[in-house]
Amino acid sequence: MKTQHDSKPMPSSIPERRKSPRYWLSVPLAIRQGDGSIVRGLSVEISEGGMSAMASEPLKVGERVELEPVEAGRVSALVRHKLGQMYGFEFVDLGAEQAQRIADRCRRAGSERIRGAKN
After folding, report:
1. pTM of the predicted model as reported, rounded to 2 decimal places
2. Which residues lie below 8 Å from residue 25, measured CB to CB, with a gap of 6+?
3. Is 87 a member of any domain?
4. Phi/psi of residue 104, each to 5°?
5. 91: domain CATH number?
6. Is residue 8 scored above 50 in pLDDT?
7. Residue 11 within a domain
8. What are 30's strand-pairing partners?
9. Which 8-state DSSP code applies to residue 81?
10. Residue 23 has what pLDDT?
């Protein structure tokens, strides 16, 4: 997968609450909602526990969705945060193989870690 990153650090004035480091990731996504409809998206960052993405249509916080592709597969996620068209997703019910692929991707991207993210 192609990744892109920016040399500018994320604002550090916001306390870090994430459990895992975040890494830049810019790839097109399909966000499948519970009713089967698909919203187009573009990922922004990924971690072992979730990802953020811009979505072309509104999503509801608390909604369960499927994101594809995420490291060559589809993952279930909960919409945890919303800020304009930017959404934070928490991965849920990851299989061991999918979780390993995501963890491997994050390890390979160590140099792309977003500055200011502490955990």
Report:
1. 0.77
2. 1, 3, 43, 44, 45, 46, 51, 109
3. yes
4. -65, -40
5. 2.40.10.220
6. no
7. no
8. 40, 68
9. E
10. 87
Of 94 and 6, more confident: 94
Residue 15 inside a domain? The answer is no
Q: Using the Cα atoms of residue 89, residue 93, residue 98 and residue 100 in order, give the sign of their dihedral.
A: positive
**Distance between CA atoms of residues 42 and 97, nearest Å:** 24
Residue 47 one-letter amino acid = S
Number of independent structural domains in the chain: 1
CA–CA gap between residue 15 and residue 52 (Å, rounded): 17
Residue 27 CA: distances (Å) to CA of 30, 43, 54, 59, 97: 10, 5, 11, 19, 21
Give the chain's length.
119
Contact 62, 42 (CB under 8 A): no
Structural domain contains residue 118: no
